Amino acid sequence: MRTSNESKESCFFSNLFYLKKYRLMAENIHGEQFLNMDGKSKDAVQKISDLQELYAATENFMEDTKKSIPKEKFEEWEYGDSESYTDKYHHRKFPNEIENSCLVAMLLKKFVSLYDEIHVCDDEEHNEEKYNLRLYDFNNHDLYFSTEQDAETFASKFDPSPYTLYKQENGAWIEQYSV
What is the residue-wise DSSP string for 57-68? Predict the structure, then answer.
């Protein structure tokens, strides 16, 4: 049986996915400025000091964003075609192709900075890591690992599906598999 911490770990990327989805819905209703981060939200993310706080904050941001969407629109869009709420500002793009909002990007970066069970880094810190886990739903956000085992352990623990694992060979990234 999973502990509550394990449940929160495995829900982090799901909650982040729904946060991105709900922010795109809210953008359709409230305008492009909705995706801008206010100082209060930015400060809240910067003050997060451990993963448990991050999981809770992500869930809170997700729920707050969901509440900003009128119920009738939410019900129409929740299980419908994403184009109905993304096309207004992101014509003919799938949600995974749309750049992460400032909030989603900041939460991903905060996650990388706090997670310390195995070495993981993102584009800004990437150096000698040989494995790349590309997160499809987050505009192909890249996470880098030193070993394939580290990447697989991470993927097993957090279930960031869908993703693709790449290995660096002779200076090129070679796809190993997609999930």
Answer: HHHHHHHHHHHT
Element of type H or E holding 179: none
At 113, is the secondary structure helix, strand, or coil? helix
- Rounded CA-CA distance 149/153 in Å is 6
Give 105-160 pLDDT, tens digit per residue. Answer: 999 999 999 998 888 988 767 778 899 999 999 999 999 999 999 999 999 999 99
Give the separation between CA 61 and CA 104, rounded to whole angstroms: 10
Provide the edge-to-edge strand list for the sheet that holds 163-169: 120-121, 141-145, 131-135, 163-169, 172-178
Whole-number Å distance between alpha carbons of 152 and 43? 33
**Backbone angle region of 129, left / alpha / beta, with phi > 0 → left and psi within -120 to 50 → alpha:** beta
Q: Which residues contact 15 (CB under 8 A, 6 or more apart)?
A: 55, 58, 59, 62
Instruction: Please tell me the distance from the alpha carbon of residue 71 to that of residue 29, in angstroms, as a whole number.
Output: 12
Quick check: pTM over 0.70?
A: yes
Domain ranges of the chain: 1-100, 117-179
Please, what's the b/e burial string for 78-92 (b: 16 or more CB within 10 A of its CB; e: otherwise)? eeeebeebbeeebee
Residue with tokens 């209703």: 29
